[in-house]
Amino acid sequence: MTVQSIFMPEAIYRYMLDASLRETAIQAKLRAETATMTEAHYQIAPEEGQLLAFLVEMIGARRTLDIGTFTGYSALTVALALPEDGRVVSLDINEQWTAQARAIWSEAKVAGKVDLRIGPALGSLDKLIAEGAGDSFDFAFIDADKENYDAYYERSLRLVRRGGLIVVDNTLWRGRVADPDDRKHKTEAIRAFNAARLNDGRVALCMLPVGDGVTLLRRR
């Protein structure tokens, strides 16, 4: 939910993009279109998208979850990284934002890889579990309402196979998690999520200062 990595001096950030960012024209177009929206800050950083694609390719993922579609950048990025038989199940509640996502997926010729499900994400995840999809996903990306992060994570842990990855966005929350005086609901939710993961033996853990903070969790 951050358009660039915020814990980095601007000059170094720009150098990093110039030296390493591989973004397609269609991804750049979507970012530019999204930047005109009031909710533009919901967009993930391009280097975070590249990290998602790298991880998906590294583990040979074929079936992935995208919890929080917005205008479709994360799903687009993952779909582009997947093999032809790969699929992204993308969850959101907003018809307007996801209409833009559908259009860009179609333009990028990856619409056939994306299964968009509109409705509360917890309900969609519970339905997947009820349908027997447990242990069938290779990868999940969580970037939706912060108060439900723990619930999304617990369901993702049931849906992602052993050795699969769960990536959680905004875990540094613009540094607010480190401010003891910040007691806002979203801050407290992320702070509680992070604290619970520290001693969660079900996963291997790595937090990175990419975007607004991303936490990588590999199911053991």
From TrEMBL:
* Parts of the chain that traverse the membrane: none
Protein's UniProt keywords contain Protein biosynthesis: no
Keywords of this entry:
Methyltransferase, Plasmid, S-adenosyl-L-methionine, Transferase
Single GO molecular-function term?
Answer: S-adenosylmethionine-dependent methyltransferase activity
Q: Which domain of life is it from?
A: Bacteria
Among Gene3D superfamilies, the record links this protein to:
Vaccinia Virus protein VP39 (3.40.50.150)
Which InterPro entries does this UniProt record tie to the protein?
Answer: Cation-dep_OMT (IPR050362), SAM-dependent_MTases_sf (IPR029063), SAM_O-MeTrfase (IPR002935)
One GO term of the biological process aspect: methylation
Give the CDD domains listed for this entry: AdoMet_MTases
Q: Does the keyword Iron-sulfur apply?
A: no
PANTHER family in UniProt:
CAFFEOYL-COA O-METHYLTRANSFERASE 3-RELATED, O-METHYLTRANSFERASE-RELATED
Q: What is this protein called?
A: Methyltransferase
Which source organism does the UniProt entry give?
Azospirillum brasilense
